[in-house]
Amino acid sequence: MLCPYCHSPLQETAILTKSDQQATTYECFTCGGHWFPRWLANDISLSQANNADSITPQTSINPPEFPRCPECQNRLSLIKHDSVPRGLHVYTCPQGHGNFFPKGELIQFKKAQEAKITYHQVWGIPIKSIFAVLLPVALVLSLAVGIPLTTRQVQQSAETRISADEVFSSPIITQIPPDSISLSFSTTLTGSTTITLYQNNQPINTYTASSTPTTIHTTTLKNLVPNLPYTFTITLETATDTIVSKPYSLSLSP
Fold first, then answer.
1. At the N or C end, where does the chain have fewer CB atoms within 10 A?
2. Where in the numbering of this chain does the Fibronectin type-III domain appear (predicted)?
């Protein structure tokens, strides 16, 4: 794949998500830009963003008028949304393949995202929509093509149903002192959701995230013990199917 800005080859690079899962990004060592598969930029920490954006460009370039997606070659669009502060340049693929961050923009986006989450947490103000802090790639897809497509797939045989990874966004995990965790996530299918919490691979509690069908879900996991490793899964109940996410990891800091 070629960089949307300078057309140099993108280099595949491993990165850790907030839940310590290894994922893949694509870095340009010529101009310092980053290509992130959809949703991944929402699920990395500020320190991981800082490490990625520490690349020293080999040259400075003039941005092209129309940067293109390295996967499908469609024109990338600048994201103009509440989740991206004015003045930052974050591009998205209209087909949902991912996001492009020119040099320096990734760390600024993550700083703004973390600051917004912290502000709501400190002041006790609920985030009305998960898309107020998340890059809205999946929102665009679900409104444009995702919901009709996945509804048809759910009605088909198991071999052709949409995978769980395409249904669930990566959860935003926010600690609420002294012993609680706030979870926020979205789904490309409309349904109700529950969270099953595990310790040592044994279920210890179930929480309702959404009791009525929706695509935006939030809940609070309470009475957690600091420094103990937990995992959780999300179960989505739609009108026609039950879909369970992959396991996610979390730990409460003391």
1. C
2. 167-254
- State the alpha helices, DSSP H only, in 156-246: 164-167
β partners of residue 236: 193, 243
pLDDT higher for 210 or 61? Answer: 210
Whether the CB-CB separation of 147 and 162 falls below 8 Å is answered with no
Cα distance between residue 92 and residue 67, in whole Å: 10
pTM listed for this prediction: 0.56
**CB contact at 8 A, 52 and 15:** yes
- Using one digit for the tens of pLDDT, what is the confidence trace for 94-116? 888 999 999 999 999 999 988 88
Exposed e or buried b per residue across 142-177, where buried means at least 16 C-beta atoms within 10 angstroms of its C-beta: beeebeeebbebbeeeeeebbeeebbbbbbbbbbee
Q: Which has the closest alpha carbon to 236: 154, 181, 172, 180?
A: 154
Cis peptide bond N-terminal to 178, omega within 30: yes
**Per-residue confidence at 125, pLDDT binned at 50, 70, 90?**
low
CA 59 to mean position of chain CA atoms: 30
- Give the length of the chain: 254
Q: What's the rounded Cα separation, in Å, for the pair 219 and 194?
A: 9
Query: Which residue from 66, 108, 236 is spatially nearest to 168, judged by alpha carbons?
Result: 236
Alpha carbon distance 34, 44 (integer Å): 13
